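Hello,

Our lab assistant flagged a job as stuck in the queue for most of the afternoon. It eventually completed. Since we weren't sure the result was trustworthy after the delay, we are filing this so someone can double-check. Below is the sequence as submitted and the structure that was eventually returned. Let us know if re-running is recommended.
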Amino acid sequence: QEQLVESGGGLVQPGGSLRLSCQYFRTVFRIYTIAWYRQAPGKQRELVATITSTGTTNYTDSVKGRFTISRENWANAVYLQMNSLQPEDTAVYYCFAPLTQDWGPGTQVTVSS
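-- returned structure --
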């Protein structure tokens, strides 16, 4: 059974928005820092955003002002709201829990007209 599961990917036009969801099936979800990574074709996986147990967030420079990471502990979920999407945001997006080294299977985001 998958511990981490992403959803919400898809095809969107440049300038559009998507909201990714990450569910982590752990009893004490609220203690976990969760990160979103992405991997574009032919490129290394890169860190996109993180959110700590206390709600502190960090973003890679290329998404600052466009992406927002948030969490709902009651739902065991972390979200990535992505606005003003550009073709260079096209990638498989992964959810990661550093404490346990758990990865989700990923969800594809394609930005194209």
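-- support follow-up --
The delay was a queue issue, not a problem with the job. The result is valid. The first strand starts at residue 4 and ends at 7. The chain has a mean pLDDT of 95.
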